[in-house]
Amino acid sequence: MTANSYLEYFLTLLGWVINNGLWNILIGTGLFAAPLAFKVVGIWMKVREEGEDEGNKGMLSLPRIENALYGAFFVMLACCVPLINLSLSTMQYDTSRAKMCGTWTTQSPDESGYSSVVSSLGDQTAAVPFWWAVVHRLSKGVTQAAVATIPCRPDLRQVRFEVQRTSISNPALAEELQDFTNDCYALALYTWKQQDQGATTDKDVLKDIEWLGSSTFRSRYYGELNSKMPRSNFPWSDARDSGRPNTGRGGYPTCNEWWSTADTGLQDRVVNQADPGMWLRLSAALKMMGKSTADYKEAVIRRLVSPQSLNISQGGQVYAGYGGNADFTTMNTVNRFGAIAGGALGSLGAFPAFDAMRQALPMVQAILLMAVCVMLPLVLAFGVYEFKVVITLTFVIFALNFLTFWWELARWLDSWLLEALYSSDTHSRFNLAGFQNTSDDMVMNFVMGTMFIVLPTLWVGALSWAGVNIGNVMSNAIGTGVSKAQSSAEQAGGAASKGISSFAGGVNEGSK
Q: Which of 273, 303, 330 is the last residue of a domain?
């Protein structure tokens, strides 16, 4: 048996361990036969209600009772009696997608954060009834085959999240970066402004001078500027440091040396602050998109040394949406600006909720699959071991497993739109139609966030159209499962939204 997530890996075993325990309770107490007794009595009562013209009551009831008992015994043998052994040693964590796309190989569950839980279940064994083992393999096989039809594309939103949550944790390095800003970057920027006098119109140059490691500043100014304090990572050099006090704590490197020296320079030390696994995943993801190592390395370093997150986009012509009006008169511009402001306040609560939902959905799927495994013997017993109950439960398990495909499809669409949105020159900070496109980008993020719920809802709804009445049950279960994580994430955004509203109210009062 295979699992698509760490949580599913050990919850599957836990579910079947409890399933076996419940079935043993039913067998030990004899309660497994109680539904059959009620079924036999029900058949006999129905036969007695029939008219005299139907013939001998005993001859009528006997084949009906036989059919009911034979069918029930077959269901018990196929769906209730544990036959196929299951343990963590026989469970497999599915890495086929990562291997097929050639990105990276994920850690095994016993090396992940769930290792303590996995080790506590290491000596547990269970057995799976024959039919449910077949259903599990078929469901996983069909799901993996469907996922394989989706073209390989990295999860850019997850990669972006990993980069954004990476920060410089060493306070000494952060302080040294501040010194570099004061001793090198600020002076270089001031000198450049004095010399340029607003003459430069090259967008690449204007973008390059926005950060500490500017190639423009390194080629023009950093070679002539020095650290004002001695640096222990750079030994004293008479040729460079003569005329400065030799305190014995190191030399006074030039800004170029201070930034670019291998291992001891600020650039390499900043790079080492990031998790090596993040660099590996980032490299694999962006190489699939044809991006060079230098491009994404510079982008991550920019993010790490910046006091604020980089503005990936500040408006830019993507496509003309249905919102607003192409004629940017005063009233249309005001209306568009108001819509953007309202959407931005709403996004403070919605976007964190979407991120939490993306993380919560596979967890909810794993827990629901475990719950279905646990309840199988009880549901079959309450259903008097009828075939229609088995068929319904089969569709439930298949539908739950196939949700993985819909979430992978939603991730692919999300990543494709992110790449289309931000990888071209259409997103320019100099575009005068930025208001229009900022709104369209925001709406696109809202739409893609909801796709992780809408696509699975459409799927279970389609099963209901086919006559399997599980759509409402599964939709409610999934919605309830992610609502707590979603509402918790919204609280932070809601607090920020209220703070902004209060601030705006104060500004309005003060301006009166």
A: 273
